[in-house]
Amino acid sequence: MKQRTDQIPTIWFIISSLLGTICLGIYVWGGIEGLTWKEVSELIPQTVSLFPESQNQIQSSIFLIRQHYYVQSIAPDLWPIMVGSIFGLAGLIMLGQFIQVWAKISKRQITLGLLLWCGILVWRNIDLTLNEWFNFLHGPWVLLACLSTGILTIICSSSIPTFLLEISHSPDKASSQKKFFGFILFYGVNLILSSGNLWNFWSSTLFIPAFIVFEISVALGMFQSLRFKDKSQQKLLRALFLLSHSVLIPFVWNNNEVGIHAIESWTIMTHLAMVLLFPLFLWTNFKEPIQENLAIFKVVHKAHFVPIYLIQIGIFILCVSWVFARQATAWHQIVAAYYNEQGDIEHFAGDRFMEELAYKNAMIHSKLNQKSNLSLARMSQEVGDVEKQAYYLQTSQIKHPEEKNFVALANIYGNENQWFESLFTLKKAHQLFPESPQIATQLSRVYEQIKQIDSAAYYLVLAKELAPQSTITWANLLYFDVRHGSKLVNMEELKSWSSSPDQAVKSNTLAKVWQNKQALPDNFTHEAFEAQLDVRDFALLYNSSLYFKGQSIIYPIQTWLKDPNWLQKFPEITFLDAWQDFYHQQPLRALNKLDLLVQKENESKAQVYRLLLQHWKQQLLAVKAKVQLENLAQARAAIQSYPFSVGILQQALPILHQANKHQEAYQASLAAVQWNEELAEFYPIYILEAFQQGEISYAEEAINRLRKSDPTLFQTQASAFAQAKEKAVNRQKF
User: Fold this and answer.
1) Would you call 56 helix, strand, or coil by DSSP?
2) Dihedral, CA of residue 104, residue 105, residue 106 and residue 107, to nearest 10
3) What is the DSSP string of 669-727?
4) pLDDT of residue 328
């Protein structure tokens, strides 16, 4: 049992090391950003000849895809706060155990005191909901966690000098002293470089960031505490570690950078003070052992003349004075971080007013902190307040310029039709981030909007050079060639890109070869895909259906038409429905649908549809099918595919009558006459079918039309008409 108890400190050291490593990993990775890239695709109509292979010059629109970037604000995540709460609760329990041992209070007394205190809290706040309880307890927890972080930083500020003392110990005194002062000098220079960079005195990358120094010092402090015989000190370190990291986890994950900066500033101050005082502390307490070159690192915590805790108290007083001598920057930063954390909690509670108030309170203490500004920009974006959104984005740029912020601002100006403001914003961004393909893409779009086509082409090519594998740049270059007649894409690139599965690239590739009357590359894959409510999907299925005609894939357009979202986003789906019917053996249904569109659309579209309707009719009339029909299925299929073929009708209608499908036969003849009223050859077929159905008045009307349009044909069929009429009249007598 004792052996298991002795292993507890080691287990806790391993747990704390893992937790510290996780926080370091999130810090290096960067946590979630306040803004994220979103790809935006636009449908751009382009007029082409629908039948480039023939002499027919019917012009209609296909669709190009132009793509750019949209910047979306990101809400904070809840899980880091919940995980931090669990660690915070564990830290509070350990802190209570330490206080109970340190103050020599019995477990019964402290338990009763806590129960009484909790009972009073519950009684005074009995009406609070679970979310309100969490909000109520969250504030004190963050304050206690921040205070624990400050205390832990001071306690562990001696851990790195102690570690340097240990690794510098050598067989001879002179070598030990040289190594130790060399390490301390290197460590002090790193702290100075880090502080100068943190406080904007200079810009350098030749230093270890203060947050990493903090985690290293804490890990070393936890390791060195394994030597302590006093277990209460180990409990205190564990409690402070858990409490501090309970707030560090949401800070680093939700990018509460003002809190991280406050901790980094405090770490720099305490460690600089310790670097100055630690050699004096060693000489005061261990002068004789140092002269004897003994391993004093093992007994640093046992100093008798000037105990280490007195040095730590002195460092606390010195650093607090230093904080307020620097206009209390670190203090205001940690308070701003506290309000940011409160704003995140109010976001999950759904109280928008309190959320906005919390973030604005944070800005009172740190106006330029990015977390508050981006959070308020997100809230403004949600309600469509573009002026406030632009203000907060501009404010966040003052201290932390980022390419996403510039693009977000430029998009706001563009949406308000202030294209030159958008251009100036992106030009400034390009100076700061010349390697950004996103900014180059946005610049191309803005230049195109202000009709500077050469500049737009230049930045499109630049975007391709910066991101040669980006499908967005491929699609945009293809779009530009089709739209503006440029030659930015060579044949090798066209062949290479044709194998891309990206819908925008494939759609624009079709448009390019269509307009230029080129052969489609062999590696272009034309296969079925599950279309979503996305403009890229629609452009591809629309262009491919028009391009491949009868060889195109059959899409479930009838199912999509039942969804009002399809009609709202892509009204051209109705035309595509008619087109697909015509080229997939449903020509008569296609003609009817297109005729309805002619009546509903505006004049320009209606004119195109009229020309197409006439073309389809001529195409059907030009078909001279020579097939031998033998059964009902063949007859139906032939009428469906060739509704305006006299030979097919003459063969198929008798078969329908034999199968007692008289109404189908009549409807087939009627459709042929209705769509070809000017052609006399369909009238005899219809007249006989009308008499067969007993539609004597319609038949006589058709006879009169035939007599006027083609008297010769009428004379040859007159006796047949008379016999059919006589039979029809006789049938009606019964």
Assistant:
1) coil
2) -110
3) HHHHHHHTTT-GGGHHHHHHHHHHHT-HHHHHHHHHHHHHH-HHHHHHHHHHHHHHHHH
4) 87
Which pair of tokens denotes residue 193?
Answer: 């470089």
Query: pLDDT below 50 — which residues of the chain?
Result: 1-6
**CA 200 – CA 206 distance, rounded (Å):** 15
Residue ranges of E strands in 128-276:
none
Please tell me the predicted confidence (pLDDT) of residue 3: 45
Between CA 544 and CA 412 the distance in angstroms is: 34
Q: Nearest to residue 468, comparing CAs of 444, 443, 509, 497?
A: 497
CA 496 vs. chain centroid, Å, equals 27
| Distance in angstroms between the alpha carbons of the first and the last residue of the chain | 112
Residue type, 144: L
Q: Is 160:220 a contact under the CB 8 Å cutoff?
A: yes
Burial track 154-163 (b if 16+ CB lie within 10 A, e otherwise) = bbbbbbbbbb
User: Among 131, 129, 111, 109, which residue's Cα sits nearest to residue 119?
Assistant: 111
Calculate the CA 159 to chain-centre distance.
Answer: 43
Residue 687 has a pLDDT of 85
Token pair of 558 as six digits: 């009838």
Amino acid at 117: W
Tell me the domain boundaries of the chain.
80-326, 623-733
Using DSSP's 3-state secondary structure scheme, residue 232 falls into helix
Instruction: Give pLDDT, residue 5.
Output: 42
> What is the DSSP code string of 90-101?
HHHHHHHHHHHH
CATH topology of domain 623-733: 1.25.40
Short-list 631, 405, 382, 479, CA closest to 66: 479
Residue 402: in which H helix or E strand, if any?
none
Q: What is the rounded CA–CA span in Å between residue 429 and residue 397?
A: 11
Asked if residues 344 and 76 have their Cβ atoms less than 8 Å apart, the reply is: yes
The residue type at 710: D
Which amino acid would we find at residue 717? Q
Q: What is the amino acid identity at position 692?
A: Q
Distance of CA 352 to CAs 166, 360, 376, Å?
54, 12, 11
Query: How far, in Å, are 161, 406, 501 from residue 24 at the CA level?
Result: 21, 29, 38
Q: How far apart are CA 485 and CA 429, in angstroms?
A: 29
The reported pLDDT for the residue numbered 7 is: 57
Chain length of the chain = 734
Q: Which residues contact 332 (CB under 8 A, 6 or more apart)?
A: 365, 366
Residues near 103 by beta carbon (within 8 Å), at least 6 away in sequence? none
Token pair recorded at residue 51: 């039948």
Residues 6 or more apart whose Cβ sits within 8 Å of residue 27: 211, 212, 252, 260
pLDDT score recorded for residue 8? 67
Element holding 252 (H helix, E strand): helix 231-253
Question: How many angstroms separate the CA atoms of 607 and 601, rounded?
Answer: 9
> How many angstroms from the chain centroid is the CA of residue 392?
21
Q: Which amino acid is at 722?
A: A
Q: What is the DSSP string of 451-477?
A: T-HHHHHHHHHHHHHH-TT-HHHHHHH
Q: Do 253 and 77 form a contact (C-beta atoms < 8 A)?
A: yes
Please tell me the distance from the alpha carbon of residue 176 to that of residue 559, in angstroms, as a whole number: 82
DSSP state of 14: H
Residue 262: the pLDDT is 94
How do residues 36-74 score in pLDDT, each as one tens digit?
A: 999 999 999 998 888 877 767 788 889 999 999 999 989
Does an H or E element contain 406, and which? Answer: helix 403-415
- CA 455 to CA 110: how far, in whole Å? 75
The two structure tokens encoding residue 162: 């102690």
Q: Tell me the three state secondary structure of residue 41.
A: strand
